[in-house]
Design goal:
alpha+beta; two-stranded antiparallel ribbon; single chain; 2 helices; about 170 residues; about 40% strand
């Protein structure tokens, strides 16, 4: 007669049951992470508002769009497209001005402004991560008001993932 408290067959059966239960719990947890639109990569998020930049008269009274990257993976600027749509529904491509860094990372602040540099065929709408571009005359004579005044639409797209990161209206 064996003096063990449990037979080897019963112990093996319990071990198999415990393994199956444990595997089922782990599978359920992981399945929940990867179902639907959820993912382990944090979705990009921006805080967008209007601030006042320096105009040609030296006053801080010209509307400028401020984008603050709140969360998400680093985003190369050359992988994005920014478009402004004016109150008359005309689309304007926004191009890079002076850039300190070509990557948008958490905590970065970017500005979108209007400046007519009188080059035929080029966009007069600019984005920059250099505050001096909008709050001083270090690079040009001063930012200019968005024309016509009214409600503008801002669209920022991640071209690689074909995803709209920003699509909102602003009073400029």
């Amino acid at each position: 007669m064996d003096n063990s408290a449990i037979s080897e067959n019963a112990a093996a059966g319990l071990a198999i049951i415990a393994t199956v239960v444990f595997a089922t719990v782990i599978f359920s947890i992981l399945s929940g992470l990867f179902s639907g639109t959820e993912s382990l990569v944090e979705k990009s998020s921006f805080d967008v508002n209007v601030v006042l930049g320096m105009g040609a008269d030296g006053n801080l009274d010209v509307p400028v769009i401020r984008l603050s990257y709140e969360k998400g993976a680093p985003l190369p600027v050359n992988r994005t497209a920014i478009t402004l749509i004016d109150p008359n529904r005309k689309s304007h491509r926004v191009q890079a001005g002076v850039l300190v860094d070509g990557i948008i990372e958490r905590g970065d602040v970017w500005y979108i402004f209007y400046y007519d540099h009188e080059e035929p065929g080029a966009s007069d709408y600019w984005y920059t991560d250099e505050p001096e571009m909008v709050f001083s005359t270090a690079y040009h004579s001063g930012v200019e008001p968005f024309m016509p005044p009214g409600t503008w639409r801002l669209v920022l797209e991640d071209l690689q993932n074909r995803e709209r990161l920003i699509d909102l209206s602003l009073d400029l």
